[in-house]
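Methods — Computational structure assignment.
A single polypeptide chain was analysed. Its primary sequence is given first, followed by the predicted tertiary structure written as structure tokens.
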Amino acid sequence: MTEEVPEDVLIDKIARKVVESKLETIVIFFLETIGPMGRLWSQIARIYLQPLLILLGSYSEAFLKILQDPDKVEKLVAKIEQLSS
């Protein structure tokens, strides 16, 4: 069983992993396009984005949970943009 990580720490870790992998452009594009359909897309992502989710390692489930909340998606995009600039 995994321990619960605070939301801000989790968003920071995922954003850093995305930037380190040099995937910020594609991830921001994906996050901006899912919009209000986050719950649906998080389920679709389990299937179609599996190769990218592997890069997040133990954070992949947390990433899918973040996709379900538009406010968290916004925070993640902002953090990725901040780290990549």
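Note: The chain is about 80% helix and 0% strand.
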